[in-house]
Specification:
Blueprint lengths: L1 H16 L6 H11 L6 H10 L1 H11 L1 H4 L21 H32 L2 H22 L14 H16 L5 H11 L4 H27 L5 H28 L6 H20 L1
Helix pairs in contact: 1-2, 1-11, 2-7, 3-10, 4-10, 4-11, 6-8, 6-10, 7-9, 7-12, 8-9, 9-10
């Protein structure tokens, strides 16, 4: 029973931190330092990634109409013929841009993913990146007071802009504590996206990224789950899914009236506390 409660806690933390720009990976690594599941190191390495599938399913459910690229012929644009009469053109193009944005992180993950985890998945990196990205959020939001966003719709994002956002995401792939959502939102703000568009594109970009990362981790772990391990994983994913539904709705409402500076300050304070704790330990 205690292990189930621990997995519920992991699911809650994942569901909250995956979408707020405060680093889910960083929080999960820190939580794993203090709350140990009774499981093997190999299982935990897989679990901390695959639990994100619960969070991503919340995006799929909430944004299904924006993500699904197919339609019935009567709903297609005038003049569309053949297979294209079944395709929503704007959504299909958006997915092409998402693929372009994924290219940098995919290359790095395939080339050096395991090595990067060994080098940087530790509290020092998490704390430093929490602080560094927090400072960036505050700086960029102050800077944006004098700049007017130019991109107010997902459809206005160019392939070049999508690729550059992917470069920002690459930093999160290398350094835990950066926050994938935080990095892509910062990239979007720097490149002229509104907060809402930056957040939405971040959500959409997470779908292939998380499914891909989870698939790779499951392949490496194998499918030889014990009933105990499978129950922990399913519970964590289910809780992450439910929590994510509320957190995504909260964030989309919040950023319509507020900036991201509060998350920047949170990151800085948490990073300092993490450094202080482990230095004093």
């Amino acid at each position: 029973m205690l292990e189930i409660l621990k997995s519920i806690l992991f699911g809650i933390v994942e569901g909250i931190t995956e979408w707020l720009p405060i680093s889910s990976t960083g929080h999960m690594i820190l939580l794993d330092e203090f709350v140990k599941l009774n499981a093997s190191e190999e299982f935990m390495e897989m679990y901390l990634v695959v639990i994100q599938l619960g969070a991503i399913m919340a995006v799929v459910i909430l944004f299904w109409s924006q993500l699904w690229p197919f339609c019935l012929p009567e709903n297609s644009k005038d003049g569309a013929k053949g297979i294209m009469q079944y395709v929503k053109n704007d959504t299909f193009i958006m997915w092409l841009k998402i693929v372009v944005a994924c290219i940098p992180a995919v290359i790095i993950e395939l080339a050096a993913g395991d090595w990067l985890e060994q080098q940087f998945y530790n509290y020092q990196t998490v704390a430093i990146m929490l602080i560094a990205v927090g400072i960036m959020f505050i700086f960029i939001e102050d800077r944006n007071k004098e700049h007017i966003a130019k991109i107010h719709k997902i459809s206005k994002i160019t392939y070049k802009t999508a690729f550059l956002i992917g470069i920002f995401q690459l930093v999160a792939a290398v350094f835990p504590g950066t926050s994938r959502s935080g990095a892509t939102i910062i990239g979007g703000l720097v490149l002229g996206l509104t907060r809402t568009v930056a957040a939405e594109f971040t959500f959409y970009l997470a779908v292939p990224v998380m499914f891909g990362a989870s698939f790779i981790k499951i392949l490496k772990f194998g499918f030889s789950f014990t009933a105990y391990e499978l129950s922990l994983l399913i519970i964590g994913m289910a809780v992450a899914f439910i929590v994510s539904l509320f957190v995504i709705k909260f964030l989309m409402g919040y950023i319509k009236k507020h900036d991201f500076k509060i998350f920047g300050w949170y990151r800085i304070v948490l990073g300092i506390l993490v450094l202080a704790y482990f230095i004093a330990a």
